Amino acid sequence: MKAETVENSILALDWNAIVEALHTKGYALVPNVLTEAQCSDITERYDQDDLFRKKVVMERHRFGKGEYKYFTYPLPTIIQQLREALYTPLTKIANAWMQALKIDVRYPEAHERLRQRCHENGQKEATPLLLKYGIGGFNTLHQDLYGNHYFPIQAVFNLTAPDIDFTGGEFVLTQQVPRAQSKATVLNPQKGDMVVFATNFRPVLGTRGYYRAKMRHGVSELKSGERYALGIIFHDAKS
Question: CA–CA separation, 237 vs 234, rounded Å?
Fold first, then answer.
């Protein structure tokens, strides 16, 4: 994938539909963002240890069963281009959320300026990551915050094909409603699909105005095969 084509492919997405879905549901499932060749290219990088700064085995931390690796800076070109191209249109949604919730935070249009804010807060480590699950693998419900300064939306790309490369392994989102039970959503993205979703909370309109609905995400248990995914988190981490 040539670097100059990444921005064009992201800009060509149906952003009206993405914006509407994020505002109404807190997530958007976007099909066919990456080609099969691009998915394979990213997946094959998993064993290139020099591209990564840290490996996490989920079982050691009770995060689930499986492993993931955080990329180090400088990021591979395709990862960097995806991160920057997605960030700019998402800032409009993020800022609308902050305004609706009356939170005195606004996000800059340029991703580099967000990184500068993170660095000023001691968050200097790259956060895009590759995840790998085998049979029985899963990821517990969680949030990817990594510090006090975070961007309220993130993305994940499915790099392998359900029912071909693996079975099970659905993407799970939960939304906590005040004074009520949590709502769960189960998605089955195909190879190359992207899910964009709330990192921490999203605004929901109630009888007294907007309130924060907490959201978490995870992956259900794999029944067979291997599942790879690429996570794009826009803020940096302290460690």
Answer: 10
